[in-house]
């Protein structure tokens, strides 16, 4: 059975609604209130970062992409299921893809939002329900019960908890992952500044943010700093500045070798996960060794940014703009939902 046409229309309408968002438009008074509350609840959620998330989703939720995304799947509405969604809250609306996946698949959702991101997603869910004149979402702040399947996102530690409590249900459980970049050394100034956005958008808190970069031998690290420089005002954010100061102090006390430009730190390290305000880098000799290492560590990598011929690599500046079919952790959410 094809996608419910009313739900699809609602998703397209929401895309237009978000794409046309302006703070001064009277039609967005309620959304403006939600944005204000989201900022107050989470010190990492700035007005700019929330508006970026809203705009990105507005562009993504267009009719052509929604049709292409949903076309390969077969949904049966005769066996509507209740899907428990446990959502992360590291960047604004980070769990929205799971929300619209459940919506488009025809199921219902029990949503447990992260405590620091409880205001934006209910607005989006309410818009869809009002447009389609049906109820599909229930937001809860207590232990989940009476559901048929689970989609949960969290840290590696919380994933173990999720596996223990939800292992008997059909489930998707996501763990920590990070974005990486592979540079050739021939990148343009524009590409390097786009990489800077991949690193520092949302203060680097997203699983798609680049936290590690592979560099050719003898690469000039000043080129990296040059790409990041346009984002220097990030240090004016108090929580970011506190993390920068703390991590710099840790590096100094641990006698680690690192590079500092006054608002960002570079450290040679093989780890994929870097602290806030830090980027790990690793040198390579041959592209073949990088391809092998990326394959071996694919369970730790959310996305790859590069201009080199690397399978699945994204262009610079697009790490936080995944297509609807770019599934987190490579787990096809719509396929999972269609098979329930």
Helix tally equals 12
Mean of residue pLDDT values: 95
Helix content: 40-55%
What would you give as the CATH superfamily of the largest domain?
Aldehyde Dehydrogenase, Chain A, domain 1
Global Rg: 21 Å
Order of helices and strands: HHHHEHEHEEHEEHEHHEEEHEH
Strand order of the largest sheet: 8-9-10-7-6-11
Overall shape: it is: globular
**Overall CATH architecture of the largest domain:** 3-Layer(aba) Sandwich
Characterize the biggest β-sheet.
6 strands, mixed
Q: Can you tell me the number of structural domains?
A: 2
Structural class designation: alpha/beta
Task: Describe, in short, the structure shown.
This protein is α/β, with parallel strands linked by helices. The chain has twelve helices and eleven strands.
Description:
- The chain has 340 residues and is of the alpha/beta class.
- 40% of the residues lie in helices and 16% in strands.
- It is built from twelve helices and eleven strands.
- The strands form two sheets. A six-stranded mixed beta sheet has the order 8-9-10-7-6-11, with helices on both faces. Strands 3-2-1-4-5 form a five-stranded parallel beta sheet, sandwiched between helices.
- α8 (189-200) links the parallel β6 (178-182) and β7.
- α1 crosses α6 (120-132).
- The protein is globular and about 60 Å long.
- It starts with a helix and ends with a helix.
């Amino acid at each position: 059975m094809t996608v419910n046409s009313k739900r699809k229309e609602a998703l397209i309408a929401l895309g237009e609604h978000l794409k046309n968002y302006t703070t001064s438009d009277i039609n967005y008074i309620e959304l403006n209130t939600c944005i204000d509350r989201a900022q107050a609840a989470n010190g990492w959620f700035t007005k700019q970062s929330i508006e970026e998330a809203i705009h990105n989703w507005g562009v993504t939720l267009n009719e052509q992409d929604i049709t292409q995304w949903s076309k390969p799947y077969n949904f049966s509405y005769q066996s509507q299921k209740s899907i428990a969604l446990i959502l992360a809250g590291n960047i604004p609306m980070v769990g929205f893809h799971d929300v619209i996946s459940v919506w488009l698949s025809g199921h219902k959702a029990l949503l447990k939002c992260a405590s620091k991101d409880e205001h934006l997603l209910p607005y989006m869910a309410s818009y869809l329900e009002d447009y389609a004149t049906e109820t599909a979402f229930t937001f809860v702040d207590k232990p989940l019960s009476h559901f048929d399947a689970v989609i949960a996102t969290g840290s590696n530690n919380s994933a173990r908890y999720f596996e223990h409590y939800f292992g008997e249900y059909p489930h998707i459980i996501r763990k920590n992952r990070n974005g990486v970049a592979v540079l050739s050394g021939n990148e343009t100034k524009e590409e390097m500044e786009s990489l800077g956005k991949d690193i520092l958008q949302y203060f680097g808190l997203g699983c798609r943010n680049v936290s590690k970069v592979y560099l050719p031998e003898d690469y000039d690290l000043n080129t990296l700093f040059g790409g990041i420089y346009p984002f220097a005002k990030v240090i004016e954010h108090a929580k970011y500045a506190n993390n920068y100061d703390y991590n710099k102090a840790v590096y100094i006390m641990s006698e680690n070798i690192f590079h500092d430009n006054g608002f960002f730190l570079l450290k040679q390290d093989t780890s994929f996960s870097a602290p806030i305000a830090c980027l790990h880098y690793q040198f390579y000799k041959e592209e073949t060794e990088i391809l092998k290492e990326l394959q071996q560590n694919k369970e730790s990598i959310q996305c790859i940014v590069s201009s080199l011929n690397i399978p699945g690599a994204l262009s610079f500046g697009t790490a936080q703009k995944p297509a609807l079919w770019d599934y987190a952790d490579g787990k096809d959410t719509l396929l999972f939902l269609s098979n329930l």
